[in-house]
Amino acid sequence: MSALTLKGPYWVTVRRYRRVLWAIPAVVAVSLAAVLALRVGAGVPHSDRMSVSPPNPGYDLLRLGMEWAGGGLLFLPLLVGAFVAGPMTARELEDGTWRLALTQSTTARAWLGAKVLVAAVASSVGAAALVGVYRLGWVRVYGTHQLHWADRGPYEAGGPVLIGYCLLGVALGALVGRLVRRTFAAMAVTGLLTGLVLLAMGALRWSFLPVRTETAPFPSGGAAGMQPNALLMDSGYVSATGERLPDHACFERTHDMGVCPADLNVVARYADIHPFSHYWPTQLVETSLVLVLAAGLLWAAFRLVRTPRS
User: Fold this and answer.
1) How many domains would you assign to the chain?
2) Which residue has the higher pLDDT, 153 or 256?
């Protein structure tokens, strides 16, 4: 058992932040209990989709809870990064207490490494558990308004990309904490940078994989066939020459989506989509990119340990 006992700076880090570490399983347990209670209250899904479902306040409450949970988990990487940057790194650099660790046969690299490792393990395990809890409730209301698999919030909260962003927050926190060395300033900067990365990746993620184009004859074929739960990226008309026309090309002249002017020579409708089968590949690609970025930031943070300021 002695080999499994934490020693040196790892023991000190866990000991100092034990209340935060204990809060992680507590949050997961409360979240699990809440989701299970909401699922029980939601009852059994209505099996007959052709008939009108009776009012179900329990289902509506579960759907609202999952909507709020998905949005809330978006802030988890920001909180992780801010905590690592502020209380774990910048505060000790600001008040000088980190120098005490160096008097206990601990190097500056080991001091920083202990904080990064403890934060990385705790945040990744906690994020993975929360992803599992979220999916437990989300699968019951999947596909409803703002709970589509590609929506901001459910996308991040339901897959490994959330773990990747939490590790990015750890890396950003370690780097910014060492650079800024002011607790609240480091927390603010790390939260801002993590949020910007989330926004940027959210704008780029649906360009990782090529869209799938589906077409249908016009007017006999109606709208282009859409796979169930697909993410629509673009749609419109196709002329006899192969030219794409916007979705409003016919309506603005005929005020009827099913009628097009003869001079446009429309022969088909098209739809560019991401089918549900693109969900996991996109998750894995985005997670890989985020982890590469996190690794680069950690490398930079540990390089700073060698500078004279350390």
Assistant:
1) 2
2) 153
